Amino acid sequence: MPDRTIDFGKYGAQGVKGHEAVARRLDALADFITSPVTTRRGLMARLHYLTRTPRARAAAYDAGLTVTDRTLKAWLAGTRNPTKHNLARVEAAYRTVRRHNVARYLLARLNRAGRGTRVEIHPLNQSGVRTAHQRAVEFRTLNIRHWEAIINAWSTGDDRALGDAWIEQIIDLGSQWGQYEYVTNIGFAA
Predict the structure, then answer these.
(1) Considering the entire predicted model, what is its pTM?
(2) Residue 5 gets which letter from DSSP?
(3) Residue 1 confidence (pLDDT)
(4) Which site in 12, 26, 134, 145 is 20 to 30 Å from 57, CA atoms measured?
(5) How far apart are CA 27 and CA 35, in angstroms?
């Protein structure tokens, strides 16, 4: 088994990298605001989240929301609307700050005082692969007890570190770990 899958999808298999599925699941657990930033309600909710305290404003500034206080007041009052570029910056800052704020809570919930969390790994989709090239890949469960590296990489948005942290965990599957680098879904609860 190679260290990492080099030519995924060559024979028609479909799926996403496991760490991307983990990031999606963590994003779902972070409970982001569901209204899009392009709506007035979504924009106001994000701006209130990012500006309600001086600490929140400092975190938003560090996350890339570098507009002036005057501009923020105009956006909150509704006298001016942000450009598409600024809407994207508000969304990025909001997601960064929210991830940072919930990371400690999620880490405690997922580690569960050393008991860990059971993770369901749904294998890649081989419906487009000819029978001769299909592998026998079954549904697997894995108990992850140490979430620190995964949560830290997710909260900082470091995709490479998240991939490495995920591979470190699925190596516990034994010699079959390479079959679960790409998956259709990862499921767990916190």
Answers:
(1) 0.84
(2) -
(3) 41
(4) 26
(5) 15
Q: Among all chains, which residue has been given the structure tokens 């000819």?
A: 130
Calpha distance 99→96 (Å, rounded): 5
Q: How many CB atoms lie within 10 A of CB 29?
A: 16
DSSP 125: B
H-helix or E-strand containing 91?
helix 84-111
User: Amino acid identity, residue 178?
Assistant: G
Which contacts of 149-153 are long-range, i.e. CB under 8 A and separated by 24 or more positions? 150/22, 150/26, 151/26, 151/103, 151/106, 151/107, 151/110, 152/103
The set of residues, in sequence order, having a beta carbon less than 8 Å from that of 157 and lying 6+ positions away, is 96, 99
CA distance 123 to 136: 10
Q: Please state, in angstroms and rounded to a whole number, the distance separating the CA atoms of residues 190 and 28.
A: 11
Say if strands 182-187 and 140-144 run parallel, antiparallel, or are unpaired.
Answer: unpaired
Residue 115 tokens, joined = 């008991």
State the virtual CA torsion across 174, 104, 16, 177 in degrees, nearest 10. 0
Tell me the two tokens of residue 36: 């899009």
